[in-house]
Specification:
It contains no helices and 5 strands. A 3-stranded antiparallel β-sheet has the order 2-3-4, with no helix packed on it. A two-stranded antiparallel ribbon has the order 1-5. This is HEWD family protein.
Length: 61
């Protein structure tokens, strides 16, 4: 049984609302629209609804 880890493709700061998107071409995060508060120590929602681990169901080989 293997586990697949899927990284997030977008994120939003809980403090200032800055939105970023992952860019496969450059291999990094890029600001989507507004930069938010440039002095903010960004707090990304790592405990939200996104689940990076995709476990196969027990009835699958």
């Amino acid at each position: 049984m293997s586990v697949t880890i899927t990284p997030p493709r977008e994120r939003e700061c809980e403090l200032c609302g800055r939105e970023e998107r992952w860019d496969d071409t450059t291999g990094g995060w890029h600001i989507a629209d507004e930069p938010g508060d440039v002095f903010c120590i960004h707090e990304w929602d790592i405990n939200g609804s996104f689940t990076p681990i995709d476990k196969p169901r027990s009835d699958q080989p």
